[in-house]
Model the fold of this input.
Amino acid sequence: NGSDKGHAYVLKAGVLTTIDFPGALGSAAHGLNDHGDVVGYYSFENPKPHAPAGNAPIYGFLYRDGAFQTIAFPGAHSTLAIRVNNRGDIAGIYRSSPNASFKGFVLIGGHYLSVEFSSGTYTAYGLNDHRQLAGSYYSGSSSQGFVAQVLAGPK
Done:
């Protein structure tokens, strides 16, 4: 639309629907499950939350049945919700301060679990219905992929 503002969209049955977080300057949708739940992130200060700038915090969201819920890792400066599985579990990334490395997280049954192995940056890209988490780990100039079984949370 020619705007510098980021928007979140869902395309269903040929209909494109905007799902921008209320009051946010910019939103981005990132994951969708079979039930129509959408996860993403938004910012009140940055029109393009997918391109973090300065000290502006970013917040994750879950959009379910026409309502938004904020996803914020406890104590984090920024949280980005990346994937939602059919159980409603959410995977994403967070950072404790504007200049800190990103770490992965999963949110299961209202409980947050940090994903970190040692120093470095972690990204959680996928979480399937069996709670297998896929992501990557960056340390210096090298990166490695990982798959992990999430054991925490309700059965």
Remarks:
- The longest strand covers residues 132-139.
- The chain has no helices and 13 strands.
- The radius of gyration is 15 Å.
